């Protein structure tokens, strides 16, 4: 398996623009997580899905952020409009979903909003 | 509530000397605990995991960790550091509730290895 695949790897955008980050989880995994990593705040869980359904989105910072999982093999995280403080590395991870199993992380998308 | 505390934000060792990265956890029941490693500009990789089997857990790259319930600790060790071990290390506790796993990360420990 190729692992969790995220695209793009790097994104530079201007403030106010819409940004869409994409994730393909490992086939057969039914849990998917979006994390944000910054120097100041470390790793923050933004949202997680189980069987394509959003379970906990309490970590989504504000209404400018939205996430979807239209099917088991694809998820998006959208920021509209983007702001410089959204600059961070965004990770997607997937997990088989059984009790106490680890999550497998993608390589991340480094977002820079200027 | 589940939580983890990594006691050191930075650890610096010389190549060939032992590594100790400390983690304490808080859990209302017997926890599952992981260590992840993140090399610069890379994703997170699982180093090892404890899921209530043997208390001494061996992982990749010569790392191991010991679960000590009496001390609520899960410290990561390696007998001899390599330059390639320089990375950030995260201690993680799992919250399994309602049929879903939620990973709760510590703040991370940055390991520097000097020649």
Give a description of the structure.
The complex is a heterodimer of chains A (114) and B (115). Chain A is globular, with a radius of gyration of 13 Å. Chain A is built from no helices and 11 strands. The model of chain A has no long low-confidence stretch (mean pLDDT 93). Chain A is mainly beta. In chain A, the strands form 2 sheets. In chain A, strands 2, 4, 5, 6, 9, 10 and 11 form a 7-stranded mixed sheet that branches. A 4-stranded antiparallel sheet of chain A has the order 1-3-8-7, with no helix packed on it. By secondary structure, chain B is an all-beta fold. Chain B has no helices and 12 strands. In chain B, the strands form 3 sheets. In chain B, strands 2, 5, 6, 10, 11 and 12 form a 6-stranded mixed sheet that branches. Chain B has a 4-stranded antiparallel sheet with strand order 3-9-8-7, with no helix packed on it. A two-stranded antiparallel sheet of chain B has the order 1-4. In chain B, a hairpin with a 5-residue loop joins strand 5 and strand 6. The radius of gyration of chain B is 14 Å and the shape is globular. The N and C termini of chain B lie far apart (41 Å). At the A-B interface, strand 5, strand 9 and strand 10 of A face strand 6, strand 10 and strand 11 of B.
Mean pLDDT of chain A, nearest integer?
93
Helix content of chain B: under 10%
Instruction: Give helix and strand order of chain B, one letter per element, not per position.
Output: EEEEEEEEEEEE
Our count of helices of chain B gives 0
- Quote the distance from N terminus to C terminus of chain B: 41 Å
Write down the overall geometry of chain A.
globular
Beta-strand level of the residues of chain B, as a percent range?
over 45%
Rounded Rg of chain A: 13 Å
Main β sheet profile of chain A: 7 strands, mixed
Low-confidence stretches of chain B: none
List the helices and strands of chain A in order: EEEEEEEEEEE
How many strands of chain A?
11
Oligomeric state of this protein: heterodimer
**Would you tell me the structural class of the helices and strands of chain B?**
mainly beta
Please give the largest β-sheet of chain B: 6 strands, mixed
């Amino acid at each position: 398996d190729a692992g969790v695949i995220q695209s793009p790897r790097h994104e530079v955008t201007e403030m106010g623009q819409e940004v869409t980050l994409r994730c393909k989880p490992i086939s057969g995994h039914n849990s998917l997580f979006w994390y944000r990593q910054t120097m100041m705040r470390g790793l923050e869980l933004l949202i997680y899905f189980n069987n394509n359904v959003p379970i906990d989105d309490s970590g989504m910072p504000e209404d400018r952020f939205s996430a979807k999982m239209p099917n088991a093999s694809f998820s998006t995280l959208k920021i509209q409009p983007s702001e410089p403080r959204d600059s961070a590395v965004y990770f997607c991870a997937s997990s088989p979903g059984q009790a106490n199993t680890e999550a497998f992380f993608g390589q991340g998308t480094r977002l820079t909003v200027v | 509530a589940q939580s983890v505390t990594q006691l050191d934000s930075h650890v610096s060792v010389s190549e060939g000397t032992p590594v100790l990265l400390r983690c304490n956890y808080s859990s209302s029941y017997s926890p599952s605990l992981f260590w992840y490693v993140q090399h610069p500009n890379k994703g997170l990789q699982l180093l090892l995991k404890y899921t209530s089997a043997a208390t001494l857990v061996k992982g990749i790259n010569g790392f191991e960790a010991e679960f000590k319930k009496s001390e609520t600790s899960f410290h990561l060790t390696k007998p001899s550091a390599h330059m390639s071990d320089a990375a950030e290390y995260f201690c993680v506790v799992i919250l399994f509730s309602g049929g879903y796993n939620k990973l709760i990360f510590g703040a991370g420990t940055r390991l520097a290895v000097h020649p």
